[in-house]
Amino acid sequence: MNICAINIYVSDLDFAIQWYNEVLNLKKSSEHDNYPTCIDLLHDHNIRLTLHKTERDTDIDIWKEASTIITFEVENIRATMKDLKERGVRFYDEEPVWFPDGERIAFSDPFGNVHELAESRENASEEKPC
Is 128 a residue whose pLDDT tops 50? Predict the structure, then answer.
C-alpha cells in the first residue's frame, strides 16, 4: 500500500490556492485540476497534495484532538520560521521542540489545518533547550 494523496480541506479554494502558493511555495498543478471542487498542488515528491472545497474551517485543539498533520522537512527550521512569520504564519510555539530525529514546530494555515516544519538531527542546531 502506498500513499498517493494528502487532502487538505479549505473553506475558500481561491484564497487557499493563493496562500499555499505565496506562503509555502506550492504551485497549482494543471494535470489534476477539478476547480472549483478541488485542485492539486505540485510537490517535489510523488505524493499529491489536494485542496478540497468545504463549507467551513476546522477549529481543532492541537495535541488534544485527533488530526492529520503534514510535516514539511526544511534545511534550517529557524530561517524558515522567520520567513513564514514575515508572511503572517502563526506558530503554536515560540521555539521548535526536540524529538529523537531533530526539531519540529507546528503552525496552521488560514483554515485551521495544522502542519509542521521539521529539521533533521543532522542539520539541527547543537544547542538543545534545557
Answer: no
